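Q: How would the C-alpha cells look for this protein?
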Amino acid sequence: MHNLRNIHKYILILAITVILAYLLPGCLWVSPVTTGPGNEVEEPPSESPEDEARRRQEERQRRNEELKQELGQFYVPLPPLDQPENPPVTVKALYLTGHTVGYRDRYAANLKLIEDTELNAVVIDVKDDHGKMSYRSDIEIVNQINAYYQPVPISDIREVLAELKSKNIYPIARIVVFKDPYLANAKPEWAIQANQGGVWTEKGVAWINPFQEEVWDYNIAIAKEAALLGFREIQFDYIRFPENARRVDQEAYYPGQNGRIKDDAVKGFLQRARQQLADYNVYFACDVFGVIATSWGDTDQIGQIWETFAPEIDYQCPMVYPSHYGPGYFGYPVPDAEPAGTITHALTDALKRNAPLKQPAVIRPWLQSFTATWIRGYIPYGAYEVRQQIDAALALGIEEYMIWDPSNVYPPGAFLTEEEAGRRAKEISENREAQGRDHLNRTAEQAVNCYLQAVKQKDWREAYSLQGSSKQLSGDQYREWLTGSTGNLNRWQIKSLENSGEGWLLNLEILISSGGEELQLPDEKWSVIKENNLWRVKPSSRFVKYISGEQNGQQEVSPGKGNKE
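A: Here is the predicted structure in C-alpha cell form.
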C-alpha cells in the first residue's frame, strides 16, 4: 500500500512537469536580441571618432591626475595622445653646451657646419656636470632648488628646437646624472656621505648617491620634460659612481646600499628610466667609459658593466677618446698619438661584447676633437685626426658617431659632404658583403679558425664572442666552463664549406685529447651564422661534450649546445 501511494505520487509529479513544460514558453516574454530580416544579431552602437577622442582624452587626464599624486615634486605631464613620428637616424653629431647655444654667433657657425657636411645632429646640454639647467623648467623640484645659471644660457628652448626641426637636425638632450654637485648641496641627504660626517667631495665636488631613488626620479623628470619640448633622444651621462673607487669607498658610504653592488644602482636607474620614458616617444642612450668594452665586469668598481647597459637602452655611447687610454693600452706607448689604431681596437672590443647579446643597443661612439696637452707624448688633434677616427669606425661598419670638444670649436675639414659620406659608406658596406666578411672583416672560415684557436688556447673571451648558441651562457658562466674543461683541442681541418643562404655549413675533422686518450671526430658538421653583424660558430653537441670532458664524467656544466648529431 505504501509503495502504491508512492507510485501514484510520482505519476502526478511527472504529469504536472509535462504540462508546465508545454505551457511556460508561451507565457514567458523574453526581450528580443535580434532584429530585422534574417534575425541578425544586433551590434552595439559603434563609438564615433569624436566620442573615442573624448574618451581617450578623459582617460589621459585621469592618468595625469594620478601621476601628480604618485610623483609629487617630480611630476611631468604625459605627452599628447597623438605624437609626431620619430624615425631612427644614423646620427653624426656635434656636442654643444647650453652656453654655446645661447651665444648666437658661435651657435650659428656650428649649425652652418652641420648643414654643409655629413653632420646631422646636435647633443645639447640640458643639465650639465655642474648640475645646472640650460633653460627654465616647469618641474617643481628644479624650481624649488633653483638649479639654474643666472641668467640661463638658453632663453627660449622651444625656439631653438623649432629651428633645429626646420633644418632637419636631430636634437639629443644630454643629461648628466650622478655627478651633480648642485643637487648634492641643495639636498645633502641625497648625496654620497663622508665617513667622517657630512657630504663627501672629490676636490671640492660633491656627487649624488646613485642608490638614492629620489635622484633617479629627479633626472627622469628632466628627461621627460626634454622629450615634451621636442628633443628626440635622451642621452644620460655620468651613469656611474666616482672614479678611484678603492679610495672613495674607504672615505665614503652610500645610504640605502643595503648590501647591493654598485651595478645594481645603475641597473635600477636604467630600468626605471626605460619604463617611465616609454610613453614619450624618444630614444634612450647612455654614455659609458670606452674601457668597459675592453675590461670584464666592473673592474674599476664604478658600476659600469657593458652587459648591464646594452639590453636596457637604444644606443650605447662608449667614450673611446684615444686620450682616455693609458700608456701601453692596445700595445701603444701613447694611445693618444694613434687615433685610428686606438679607435679600431676599442670598437673591435665593443662589437665583440655585443655579439653574444640578444638585441643589444646600437654602438654609437664619442670621438675626440680636442688636444690632450696633459698627456706626455700627445699630438695636436685637428681635421686629420678626427677624420682618422671616423674612418676607423666606418671600417668596422659603425657609421654613427658624436664628436666631443668642450670648447665646441670643430674643424670643418674633418667632415665630408652628405653625398660623399653616403657613397663611401655604401662602397665599404657593399665590398664587405661581396667578400662575405663581417664587421670585423672576417670571413666565415676565418671566424671558425679564430674560434677553434681560442678554444685550443682556453681564451674564453674570444671564444665567447665567437660561439653562437640558442641557449647562451653569461660571460662568467662561459669562462667557468671553458677554463674548467678537461678536453684539449689538438688540431683540426676544415674539409668543406657550403653556403646555406642563411650562413655556412661546414664539415670538419677534429682531434681532441681528454683523460689521457685521443678522440677523433672525423665528420663534424657545424654551421656559421651572422649574429649582431659578426660571424658566429655553432659547433656540434659532440664537440662541446668532448671539450667539456663529459664523456669521462668529469664536467657537468657546458654551454648551450649548437648543432646536434
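The chain has two domains: 70-434, 444-552.

Confidence is low (pLDDT under 50) at residues 1-38, 553-558, 561-565.

Upvote if useful.
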